[in-house]
Design brief:
Bound molecules: 2-phosphoglycolic acid
Largest sheet: 8 strands, parallel, barrel
Distance between the termini: 22 Å
Shape: globular
Order of helices and strands: EHEHEHEHHEHHHEHHEHEH
Helix content: 40-55%
Strand content: 5-15%
CATH topology: TIM Barrel
CATH architecture: Alpha-Beta Barrel
Radius of gyration: 17 Å
CATH superfamily: Aldolase class I
Structural class: alpha/beta
Strand order of the largest sheet: 1-2-3-4-5-6-7-8
CATH class: Alpha Beta
Number of domains: 1
Amino acid sequence: MEQVTRRRVICGNWKMYKTIDQALHFIDELSPIVANANCNVYLAVPFTAIKLMADKAKELHISIGAQNMNDATEGAFTGEVAALMVKDAGASFVLLGHSERRRVFKEDNAFINRKVKRALQSDLEPILCIGETFEEREEGRTQEVLKEQLTACLNGVDRELAKKLIVAYEPVWAIGSGKAATSEIAEEIQSFCRETLASLFDAEVADRTPLLYGGSVTSENSKDFLNQPNIDGLLIGSASLHPESFAKIIQLCQNSASSNDSLAKGE
Ligand code: PGA
């Protein structure tokens, strides 16, 4: 079978942590380490830090993104931020459908679907997060739930625009719990997600979409995930808050089996 070239992506998700000063300081510490990174380094930062971080990260080839956005172009939505606004601030990607957004802020698949489409129309790369709860896994419904999330969240997405998509599998029970999925579970799921993407779009879209694993990723367990054929990168919460642990994961990604695939960087 023909070798597929896929981007490798290491994405930090800072959640509601870091002031602007702290964020800029982090970049200063990280920059010597990522100077020659041959994988794509992404950081999803608080809205308030996007502009200055994006300005600073440009020469370092670090992509700065938002952790959320609204689906409307503009309007009377107090407290919300539009796709064009995060783009204007310098974001190149946006996390959508994170389980904390689904659970705490009651976002459903239909809303996430509208956001995915809006992000793509606004030239923002969506990182669509999907994942099952502990109960859904116990009930043997994992694949059903993930297929439903993918199908509903990607409903009506244009095939050409879908080539900009990244999908992160983050089991809800693994996020912030210190109990990561095994790399075998993550590989099995990402292989299933790739098949699902092929059925929703086609084999080309499925083959080129970077699929990430997230949920209690550390510098100790990241190598196992990165060595799996269908795992093209990681979405990292708490271990991305410290430059040392984040840098270590980036270095592991560079050294991992298929890091040559990252020649597609910037595509
Ligand atoms: P964690 O968070 O790495 O702290 O588990 C991952 C995430 O929420 O994206």
